[in-house]
Amino acid sequence: MSGEPDEQVTDAIDVILEQWRRERPDLDLSAMEVFARLARVTRISESAVERVFARHGLRQGEFDVLAALRRSGPPYTLIPSELSAVLMMSRAAMTNRIDRLEKAGLVERSLDPADRRSFRVALTEEGRRVIDATLVEHAANLNRLASRLAPQDATTLNRILRAMLSADA
């Protein structure tokens, strides 16, 4: 990150692509190169992230629920349909996560005064303590994982990934 251009580093993906280019020179493999590296980065980061969550007694999905509640601001309460929408997941999967978090004492359910057929999910004090501690370590872990990127490269990568994701929207 000295501002000097990085020297080109050869990795296992380069070797694989060179083999394919030798065997199938008729194919454009430029997208394969991008997605192979994205997949590799994903595997590495998922493993590192899971280790942090496990140290706090959480799985990825449980972290997501606690984080959504914490981000919602005081009183750190949402109804399950709001959680499902924010986390882009089915209500059935959300119910399983809420059940596990409630059993662990990290969230509590209460009837929704606005709709007695529904309930609200709120962070407990312990849930707030756990998500705050986990988030501190999680952010540091992600910063460590991204530390090889110069700030301008991180900005460029974010712009590129946003563009790729917008094509799927």
What do these coordinates show?
The protein has 169 residues and is mainly α. 64% of the residues lie in helices and 10% in strands. It has seven helices and three strands, in the order αααβααββαα. The protein has a three-stranded antiparallel β-sheet with strand order 1-3-2. The mean pLDDT is 91.
End-to-end C-alpha gap: 34 Å
Helix share bin: 55-70%
User: Strand arrangement, largest sheet?
Assistant: 1-3-2
Instruction: Give the CATH level 1 class of the largest domain.
Output: Mainly Alpha
The residue-averaged pLDDT reads 91
- CATH fold-level assignment of the largest domain: Arc Repressor Mutant, subunit A
Which stretches are poorly predicted, pLDDT < 50 over at least 5 residues? none
Strand tally is 3
What are the main properties of this structure?
2 domains, Arc Repressor Mutant, subunit A, elongated, 3-stranded antiparallel β-sheet, mainly alpha, 169 residues
Quick take:
The protein is mainly alpha-helical and 169 residues long. The chain contains 7 helices and 3 strands; from the N terminus they run H-H-H-E-H-H-E-E-H-H. It has 2 domains: 11-55; 59-169, Arc Repressor Mutant, subunit A (Orthogonal Bundle), CATH 1.10.10.10.
